[in-house]
Amino acid sequence: MKEYARITIDDVKRSDEAAALIDMQSRYLETLGYTEHGVRHVGYVSKTTANILRETGADERTVELGEIAGWLHDVGNSLSRTYHGLTGGALAYGMLVRIGMDPAEAAHVANAISNHEEETGVAGDALSSALILADKSDAHRSRINKKNYDEFDIHDRVNMSIKKNYLVVDRSKDVIRLVIIMDSTSAPMEYLQIYLARMVMCEKAATRLGYTFELVINGVLINHHKRSRGKLTLRSTEDVLSQD
Ligand SMILES: [Fe+2]
Ligand SMILES: [Fe+2]
């Protein structure tokens, strides 16, 4: 059986191929007017994916693979925005094997990358679930490209309005909570217009990890999941107008 080196995030960061693809994805999406997709974004996703995996009980090697998947997750954008999850998985697999990663681990990372976008992605395990939650939680005013800021663009407005956002893993309640604080530059309705499919994806990803996903915007729980305890009873002022 062939022995493979334990490839780490530092090995991946030293790779010329990874640096070239991340530089291309960043410059291409900036040209198209997208929010920031460079080392700030992939650095955030890398750290956050690892943190989610660690907090939810993954083994140390899976945490390391999460760091790598986060760093490389958007490299498909160096080719095209469309289907960049799938193309990114293919690019990352080849790159990781070339720098000496065990092909089984490279395939695991590639699978997570291929399934991080709502176009085609379905979380199959903890690694891909954590990557989805980390990536979709990165909306913030620091992602706006200041040269191209357009107040008539809903993505720019929503990102500009987000003053603070953070992800919490609450192990005592089995809840993963995304907390967003927006100002009046935009509104929760606009956030949901562009993020609804991604938030539904986060719900499924959290479920895959054995958690419930909560989205809290400006102190309000948007996706109410509290299960009713016991039998529901009517108040004295309530009458049922329909019966099944
Ligand atoms: Fe992406
Ligand atoms: Fe991303």
Structural description of this entry:
Helices cover about 50% and strands about 10% of the residues. It is an alpha+beta fold and about 240 residues long. The longest helix is centred in the last third of the chain and has 21 residues, at about 190-210. It is built from 9 helices and 4 strands, in the order ααααααααββαββ. A hairpin with a 2-residue loop joins strand 3 (about 210-215) and strand 4 (about 220). Helix 3 packs antiparallel against helix 4 and helix 4 (about 60-70) packs across helix 6 (about 105-115). The chain has a single domain, classed as Orthogonal Bundle (Hypothetical protein af1432), CATH 1.10.3210.10. It has a 4-stranded mixed beta sheet with strand order 1-2-3-4. The protein binds fe (ii) ion (2 copies). The site of one fe (ii) ion (FE2) has 5 residues, from helix 3.
